[in-house]
Write a structure and sequence with these properties.
It is built from six helices and eight strands. By secondary structure, it is α+β, with helices and mostly antiparallel strands. Keywords: DNA-binding, Transcription, Transcription regulation. GO terms for molecular function: DNA binding; DNA-binding transcription factor activity.
Length: 214
């Protein structure tokens, strides 16, 4: 910590990060141990965060991330979309297919940016705000793949066919974890199979998007 930073704010943000990384919430004792502070400090931090709906505590006393973070997240989407558009536009033009950026929203995959190619006679119409389960479609499956510490897919991308739209195929790659956004970059096309060169191009686009988000 430096003289220009707030120790209390830093601890509060660390609480939110710890809770976001926990699948089952954390107790005051667990937070106290991980933060290296006494339980009284943790109680005060949680009480303040609860007032802003950023944290909630269940009947068993375990703290979890609250619904208030959703409001903050919605304001992030436009910024992420603007940052990703150049890479998505280049991807769409190179591949000749609709490119998209998808992020996690609860248990769903939420499309936050879409770019359609300018030169094709026809392509898939995809809309911002489209959502689907994480375990369906290339975009969602790529996000789940990105969560694995040991990614089995050496190519770094996921291919699907007909999972979200009959006759449609998709390719997507997860955003690198260090960019701060859990999501994926992909394309969707009217094709029985994704051409072999598309997968690596999608991986490169995901890296380009991550580079501007870091």
């Amino acid at each position: 910590m430096t003289a220009e930073t707030s120790q209390t704010l830093d601890r509060g943000l660390r609480v939110l990060k710890l809770l976001a990384e926990s699948d089952h919430g954390l107790t005051v004792t667990e937070l106290s141990r991980q933060l290296g502070v006494n339980r009284t400090v943790v109680y005060r931090l949680l009480a303040t965060l609860e007032q802003h709906s950023l944290v909630r505590r269940d009947a068993g006393g375990r703290a979890r991330v609250g619904v208030g973070v959703l409001g903050l997240g919605r304001q992030v989407h436009p910024l992420v979309r603007e940052a990703a558009l150049p890479a998505l536009r280049a991807l769409a033009e190179d591949v000749g297919a609709t490119a998209h950026l998808t992020v996690v929203d609860g248990t769903d995959a939420l499309t936050v940016a879409v770019v359609e190619p300018s030169w094709t006679d026809y392509h898939v119409a995809y809309r911002t705000g489209f959502r689907h389960p994480l375990d369906r479609g290339a975009a969602g499956r790529a996000i789940l793949t990105g969560r694995c510490k040991d990614i089995n897919d050496e190519d770094g991308f996921v291919l699907t066919r007909g999972e979200l739209e009959a006759g449609g195929s998709g390719a997507a790659a997860p955003l690198p974890r260090d960019c701060g956004i859990e999501g994926s970059v992909g394309v969707v096309m009217l094709s029985e199979a994704v051409p072999p060169e598309v997968g690596p191009r999608v991986v490169r686009a995901a890296e380009e998007v991550a580079a501007v988000l870091r």
